[in-house]
Design goal:
With 254 residues, this protein is of the alpha/beta class. Helix content is 33%, strand content 23%. It has 8 helices and 10 strands. The strands form 2 sheets. Strands 6-7-8-3-9-10 form a 6-stranded mixed beta sheet, with helices on both faces. A 4-stranded antiparallel beta sheet has the order 2-1-4-5, covered by helices on one side. The longest helix is centred in the C-terminal third of the chain and has 16 residues, at 185-200. The protein binds adenosine-5'-triphosphate and magnesium ion. Residues 57-58, 101, 177 line the site of magnesium ion (MG).
């Protein structure tokens, strides 16, 4: 899985793509969503993150995307401490791709325009933006729906538009929050294969999923419980997969 000899190697001495050190997040109102989280994702790694509802997965992704700040600790992306980046909107637009749990498409413009919008303010002109948007929609099997409005698509199709949009500016880091949650098994498997191909091209992927079968397509599985990272393992190892499966069964028990 992770041993593909053709995959581009991270340059020697390159910093990890994602690094959280002693991170805590407390929301106003007193909710403590993360406690002392330490997590390192190497450049070009594909990591799946799982855990029960409310355990802090989306909070963690939002901190890495610089959509929110930690209450304590340091978050670094490609070696840069996010607390010291002045132009955070540029960072969000160009360095990280984020697929939100709620996909946040603009309802009144076409699917292809939703993807193009992510490229406003970059070097691409209108024609190049449109061409790139169509190429990405093709990559997520939506070439035929480009002119539709998001409201005319199924939930799973909208999710795939959000994936296409997140890739528009070739981010080095892709953060995906349950991107396969609304997809049928075959479409979910195809999306995971797409993330695997992106990893093979050198992109770092951190993906939240409840589906351990899908997580097994990643290089590594990390688990959060009640705001803390509790395991780190490779899902293909039967002992760890078994432990993770038992934990998931526990999560989904009524
Ligand atoms: N903006 C907010 N203000 C206050 N509390 C919040 C906020 N966002 C999340 N929380 C709380 O923080 C905790 C972690 O939430 P988070 O969204 O990170 O969970 P999650 O693991 O993504 O859950 P799910 O699997 O349901 O998406 C929860 O208790 C949640 O209620
Ligand atoms: Mg969430």
């Amino acid at each position: 899985m992770s041993e593909d000899p053709t995959r581009p190697e991270a340059p020697e001495g390159a910093p990890p793509a994602i690094e959280l050190c002693g991170v805590a997040k407390r929301y106003s109102g007193g909710v403590s969503a993360l406690h002392e989280v330490n997590l390192v994702v190497g450049s070009g790694e594909f990591v799946a993150l799982s855990g029960p509802s409310g355990c802090g997965k989306s909070t963690l992704l939002h901190l890495v995307a610089a959509l929110d700040r930690p209450s304590e600790g340091v978050v670094k992306v490609n070696g840069r401490d996010l607390a010291h980046i002045h132009d955070l909107s540029r960072f969000r637009r160009l360095e990280v791709g984020l697929v939100f749990q709620l996909h946040n498409l603009l309802p009144r413009i076409s699917v292809v325009a939703n993807v193009e919008i992510a490229m406003y303010g970059t070097h691409r002109n209108g024609a190049a933006r449109r061409a790139r948007a169509r190429e990405l929609l093709d990559e997520v099997d939506l070439a035929g729906q480009a002119e539709r409005l998001p409201t005319q698509l199924s939930g799973g199709e909208r999710q795939r538009v959000a994936i296409a949009r997140s890739l528009a500016n070739d981010p080095s880091v892709l953060l995906a929050d349950e991107p396969t949650g609304n997809l049928d098994a075959e479409a979910a498997r195809r999306m995971m294969a797409l993330f695997g191909r992106l990893r093979d091209r050198g992109m770092t992927v951190l993906l939240v999923t409840h589906d351990l079968g899908l997580a097994a397509m990643a290089d590594r599985l990390e688990r959060i419980e009640a705001g803390r990272i509790v395991t780190a393992g490779r899902p293909e190892r039967p002992d760890e997969a078994g432990a993770a499966r038992r934990a998931l069964a526990r999560d989904s028990a009524p």
